[in-house]
Amino acid sequence: MTGVPRGSEAEVDAVLAANDALYAALEAGDLDALTDVWVSGADADDVHGAVCVHPGWPVLRGRASVLRSYALIMAHTDYIQFFLTDVEVEVLGDVALVTCTENILSGGEAEEEGELGPLVGGKVVATNLFRRTDEGWRLWSHHGSPVLTGGDDDEEG
Question: Where is the SnoaL-like domain (predicted)?
Fold first, then answer.
């Protein structure tokens, strides 16, 4: 983890465990585990409930819409692995903010049916907002934004 976490060490560790559970569920393609990560009940479906923005997608509101989006992603992803960097945590009362960079390795399209495609890399900066619930820290909002990288010329301008 980089940066200085804010909140007690136990709170920060609990939030990091919840954040890790999100990415572990995605890597495993485990929709049940992913479902457990997100807020549920009244916390999920009110006007301030579960919210998700995948890179390039519109805002999704409500637990059902969010989970449906992940089911679609998982159904069309043969392989995905996340290497998180630049992870920072801030806990303020019953809300916790995690920012990180998702360095993503996934399977690309195969040239021929029945074969595995090449591995493709990508980078997304993510903001994960958690709420403290009776069941522990649960993801309340996820926003991922692609990092568009170019050649050295981009850095000079």
Answer: 15-147
